[in-house]
């Protein structure tokens, strides 16, 4: 997604999927068992198929992504629709892996919070726009690390696939300051961390209803 925004680009064979890098971390944030889970912007369903829940629903606005994902397993309920308007329930776990930037930030985050059942967990791995001095300082670490990982993956045969050719791509993202400001209003108490490779993480536990 952000390759065109960077001044330095890796050769195609050294490029790799940054979202996969954080998927293990995301899965570790899940409760040991959940009755229901929703994966928002599921794409080809790589994350949805690994979520531990009695019932897993995955939604994507791309009919092609849902068509391909649904061919992989019938253990997930695959939904083609707009998460902002589609009739959905509330879930013990809601995940969004590199999908929140496809939505208007505040409207999208408000919707994700509303889909999270009281006592449930919202987990986001998202992209942010490089804008501040801190962002640019991070790139002094990120750019060489990105090249090293790309080289290692190329050597073991897993590089060269930053994303599927049919995956919808959006070339904008909010800044980290915008994300933090929106989260403070919409999901107060959410834990937000800046991460390598132009990503941030957000974990929010919806308050219990007493």
From TrEMBL:
<keyword id="KW-0808">Transferase</keyword>
<dbReference type="Pfam" id="PF13649">
    <property type="entry name" value="Methyltransf_25"/>
</dbReference>
<dbReference type="GO" id="GO:0032259">
    <property type="term" value="P:methylation"/>
</dbReference>
<dbReference type="InterPro" id="IPR041698">
    <property type="entry name" value="Methyltransf_25"/>
</dbReference>
<keyword id="KW-0949">S-adenosyl-L-methionine</keyword>
<keyword id="KW-0489">Methyltransferase</keyword>
<dbReference type="InterPro" id="IPR029063">
    <property type="entry name" value="SAM-dependent_MTases_sf"/>
</dbReference>
<feature type="domain" description="Methyltransferase">
    <location>
        <begin position="38"/>
        <end position="120"/>
    </location>
</feature>
<protein>
    <submittedName>
        <fullName>Methyltransferase domain-containing protein</fullName>
    </submittedName>
</protein>
<dbReference type="GO" id="GO:0008168">
    <property type="term" value="F:methyltransferase activity"/>
</dbReference>
